[in-house]
Specification:
The protein is α/β, with parallel strands linked by helices. It folds into two domains: 1-155 and 297-347, Isopropylmalate Dehydrogenase; 166-285, Isopropylmalate Dehydrogenase (3-Layer(aba) Sandwich). It contains twelve helices and 14 strands. Residues 1-8 have low confidence and may be disordered.
Length: 347
């Protein structure tokens, strides 16, 4: 196991199966094959036979080893991919999702979250899911973020952050049509995202004095109301509220001048008003290495910032860079929580 700051052994990272017809299994196997001494130990919650077949089908030299509990993962990690078996077999065809596997997908998420909450895993990394398949099988949540918040019993909504080495962004409105995002944008929502983000930067990222910037919604941040009043009526009041609570926050700034290198040195994260305003700069700066993380949960959760990639699943062409980045970010976040005394991650 990894060694903690006080010399204790820290628990490994739990990795979910994700959509088995996608690239989740492949990128996890590739991460193990290409591991370095700095790779955080992890284990998969999956069907070992499925992974053996996948490795054989695409020619990956990855040995699969069943474990009975997370504590066995670190000892196995150097010689094999540790897998904590699901309670059901999974038969998947690359690129062809099947609702029959939805139960196993959700069960993998549940097990990882429970282990993370119990401290048997220091964090969870979620492989991409196919939401339509889950919806067709009766899954009642928009995605991972909402489902994990419900499972953790949160009274307030968690916040989604996308991050790479050069930039952290938080979309205030997420998976909504643009016209719906405009109607849903509120001062309460912006203030909530700012509050959760500032706290997480301190606790999970080791930023002693977090600095937030806020993007405007309209061109030129509204041009004093001539190009829209959302900055005046919604965004500025949210910023004032956050400042009154002691959050170091500035803006609203025109989004077209907020993401260049010099601007990025002035803040630790940006609150963005809608999905693409956050995702376009992040993916332009680091398309392969971006990580999705959920702020405000009682455990650490990260995910590669891409989807199931059905078009290349089973071909051996998947890129594990974002998955590896998610592992490292999860390990760093867990370490910061341990240092802050806010962890449940000591085995």
């Amino acid at each position: 196991m990894m060694q903690g700051a006080r010399g204790e052994r820290t628990a490994p990272i739990a990795v979910t199966m994700g959509e088995p017809a996608g690239i989740g299994g492949e990128i996890a196997l590739l991460a193990w094959i290409r591991r370095t001494p700095e790779t955080p130990p992890f284990f998969l919650i999956d069907d070992p036979d499925r992974l053996r077949k996948l490795a054989a089908d695409i020619g990956l030299a990855a040995r699969i080893e069943r474990i009975s509990q997370p504590g066995e993962a670190a000892a196995a990690f150097d010689r094999a991919v540790p897998v904590l078996p699901l309670d059901t077999a999974v038969a998947a065809t690359a690129g062809k999702p099947a609702p029959a596997n939805a139960r196993a997908v959700v069960r993998s998420i549940d097990r990882a979250a429970d282990l993370a909450m119990a401290g048997d895993a220091c964090a969870m990394v979620t492989n991409p899911i196919h939401k339509t398949t889950l919806y067709d099988a009766g899954f009642g949540h928009p995605g991972h973020t909402e489902y994990l918040a419900d499972r953790a019993g949160l009274a307030t909504a968690p916040v989604m952050m996308l991050a790479c080495a050069e930039l952290r962004v938080v979309p205030v409105t997420i998976h909504l049509a643009l016209k719906d995002a405009l109607t849903k944008l509120s001062a309460d929502g912006i203030a909530h995202c700012g509050r959760v983000t500032a706290a997480a930067l301190a606790r999970d990222f080791g930023v002693a004095a977090p600095r937030l910037s806020v993007a405007g919604l309209n061109p030129h941040a509204g041009e004093d109301g001539h190009l829209g009043r959302e900055e005046i009526d919604i965004i500025a009041p949210a910023i004032a509220r956050l400042r009154s609570e002691g959050v170091n926050v500035a803006g609203p700034y025109p989004a077209d001048t907020l993401f260049h290198a010099a601007a990025r040195r002035t803040y630790d994260a940006v609150l963005c008003m809608y999905h693409d305003q956050a995702l376009i700069p992040l993916k332009t700066i680091d398309f392969d290495g971006g990580v999705n993380t959920t702020l405000g949960l009682p455990f650490v959760r990260t995910s590669p910032d891409h989807g199931t990639a059905f078009d290349i699943a089973g071909t051996g062409r998947a890129n594990p860079t974002s998955f590896v980045a998610a592992l490292h970010m999860a390990a760093r976040m867990a370490a910061h929580r341990r240092a802050a005394g806010a962890d449940r991650c000591v085995a």
